[in-house]
Every structure is written in structure tokens, then in C-alpha cells.
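WARN retry 2 of 3 for item q-0093 after timeout on previous attempt; input resubmitted unchanged.
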Amino acid sequence: MNMERYNKPEPGRLLPLEGAHNLRDLGGYPAGAGRRLRWGKLYRAGDLHRLSPGDRAFLEARNIKTIVDFRGDRERKAAPDVPPATLVQTFELPIDAASILDLCAPETKAGGEALMQELYGRMVVTARPQYRHFFRILGDPAHTPLLFHCSAGKDRTGLAAAFILAALGVDRERIYEDYLLSAVYLKEAIRQWLRAAPHLEEAVLSVRRGYLDAAFARIDAAFGGINRYVQEELGADAGMMREWYTETAP
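OK item q-0093 returned
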């Protein structure tokens, strides 16, 4: 695998916003059979509670209609979204991050990487209802352009993006590429988080290949592979999604 490309993300993928981090377009990824993901349909992000007026105007120019919020109630109340004026509907699909905070308590013995691998393996099982609802939303093109997010835009959102890309026929290494970009785009934010909460580990605040490995391993063992998982467990209509979310590659 060419790790260098993870530090040279495709131009135009990250949206240049002042008050949001890790907000990026999923467009452009090759989706097999001469197809690629359409730009301007699906966006992934961290929280949206510090958007400036300029940021909101930037998102409004992209006609964001739908927001899917994977944060728990406590997170949403502490940092409510500042939505663009074009927003039509928000779907709250809480995958509660309290477990992350509990796992990272100072008295915890295990290292951060092991804890995150455990968490990812758990989420692919316990968060199936939320991700299944997410794919029902994706099944209605009227909801696009759509933005989905959690707090940092790396774990719950990272899995959601991985499942979308898998359903659309994006190869495994490209899925990892998109996932690992969070380590690039969150680098400065992670420094700030560590200064504010020095008891946390960088391994918990960033992403590692091993975390997604743990999710895929659990999916393979429990559900017979990623294709069966997204189609049977999450209800993805791969044919419809490819028709709407991909286009002929130039």
C-alpha cells in the first residue's frame, strides 16, 4: 500500500471552512466498471456547531438539504448544529459516544489502540439499526445533497463512509484511503484536544488502519463479508445507489 498518498489528498475534497473540521466531499472515488462517485452529493464531517456565516453560505451554495447526525443526546445538546439555510430535514440517529469516554477514563488499563479496535468491532454489531436507517435515507435521492456527521467525523462517520463506499463498489484500499484522511485533516484539532484533555491518548483521538481492520474482521466473521453486510444487514440497494451516486468516469 502506498502510504504517501494519504498525505496528499485529492484537491477539492476538503471544504475550506473556518468553523468546521474534517468536512469533505465523497466524490471522485473510482467505483468500478468505469464509474466514479459524483461530486456534490454526499459529504462527511465532524460537528457543525461553530460554523461561521461564511461557512453557512459556503454550504448553502452546495444546497445541503439533509443532515444525518450520529451524535448522542448529550453531544447534540452540548454542541448544537448551526445548519445552512438550505436545510430541509435533520435525522438524528444517535450512536452514543459515551462508551468511548468510558473506555478512555484515566483509570483504564488497556492502551488506546486496543480500546478503539474493541469499539469498532462492537459498533458494526450494535449500531446496525442506526446504519440501516441511514441507508433508508440514502435510498431517497430527494434527500441529497446530504451531509452526515458525528463529533470528530472519524469513527461513527468513518464507518458510515466506509459502508457507503463498499455499497458503491469502491475497492478496499480506496475505502481505507478515505478513512485514513481523518488523521491528516484532524492533525491540528488533535493537538488542541490533547492540550485540553492530556489524559487522553492520541490513538483514541485519531484513526489507525487497525481500527477499520477490526470492523471488517468482525463483519467477515459474523456476517459473511462486507457486501453481504451492507446489503442484508443494512439494506443497501446497491443498484439504485450506483445509479444515483455514481457517474461514468472520464
